[in-house]
Amino acid sequence: MADNKVMEIPTYNDEKLAAEYQAKRKAQMDEDFKQPFDPDCVLEVRHLRKCFPMKKSLTGKVTKELVAVDDVSFKLKAGETLGIVGESGCGKTTTGRAILKLHEPTAGQIIFDGKDITHYNSAQMRPIRQQMQIIFQDPYSSLPPRDTVGGILSEPVEVHNIVPKDQVKDYVLELMEKCGLRDYYFERYPHEFSGGQRQRICIARALSVNPKLVICDEPVSALDVSIQAQIINLLKKLQREMNLAYVFISHDLSVVKFISDKIGVMYLGSMMEFGSKEDIFKNPLHPYTKALFSAVPNPDPTVKMERIKLEGDIPSPANPPKGCRFHTRCPYATEICKHVIPEYREYEPGHFAACHLLEQK
Question: Which residue among 13, 145, 206, 312 has its CA within the 20 to 30 Å range from the CA of 282?
């Protein structure tokens, strides 16, 4: 009688695997940091990491930290839009703010317009601020209530000496017209406008200093659908006219599909998948990307969608799971996913993902 063979489950030394991963990652970072800057790119982000201290010892040493962004890399050319999608708390906004150095990066490289600005201080950043701007999510709280539209738009123009002082008002009125704002709005206050009009003022403020890069932090999430379309069309029109580069942060996949050239999918601070819009939507590789797309409603009632349901809530970034960060919710997770961090690699030209299932294929 033949012996029944019992399948052995491989054992993993988590501490050893973590040390090996960190050593491999450091070697890769050191190699990437030595690479020359891409002259065709307005923005180049290499292995960006941002941590926030949670606990400190009596001597001030950080004993526990929250990793909000971990090992994010991408390139962006003038006239291109990078869409960043993911659930709330995945690090999208922190990535955008770290690029602008509103949050000081913990590690990594930020190359803007051929300059490494990672370690620039506030004085060095001042002339760079003119070239990189942000449109905030909430148009209600991001405008000063005691200043008129004319004052809000004139201040950055005067601070950065965009035009001579006697030409500031004409310049602002021309900018307002470009952004779909009437000239008689010049003397009005923010509380007199609707949400869509306020967001147009925020866009005009961001573009008043002729930037090269604009971080759009969920600029349409607080607006209704009809106004969303107007704002998105305005952003695309201004991008064509001014050759702007956008980093567009959003939850709405249909909006991201319409406006983006490249898409990055983030989960718990890490980039799960990155590629061109066509690659991501036609051939999503990562299970998390597939789950996100399956949640998008289809307007055709005859088409049946297979919904991939993710169990549980997103884990806390203060205590992320070992191995692949998505394994606690992934329907295809295996034993290796619980212990080994998957390598973020290129599976097709320009199409990156981090998943053990793809490595096994």
Answer: 312
Tell the burial category of 88 from Cβ atoms under 10 Å away from its Cβ (0-12, 13-18, 19+). exposed
Position 37, amino acid: F
For 89-134, write each residue's pLDDT tens digit.
889 999 999 999 999 999 999 999 999 999 999 999 988 999 999 9
Strand partners, 274: 264, 352
Q: Which helix (H) or strand (E) segment is 247 a member of?
A: strand 245-249
Chain mean position to CA 300: 30
Query: What is residue 349's three-state secondary structure?
Result: coil
Q: Are 226 and 232 in contact (CB under 8 A)?
A: no
Q: Count other C-beta atoms under 10 Å from residue 121's C-beta.
A: 8
Q: pTM (2 decimals)?
A: 0.89
CA distance 359 to 22: 19
Q: Give the C-alpha separation, 328 to 311, whole Å.
A: 8
Q: How far apart are CA 222 and CA 306, in angstroms?
A: 29
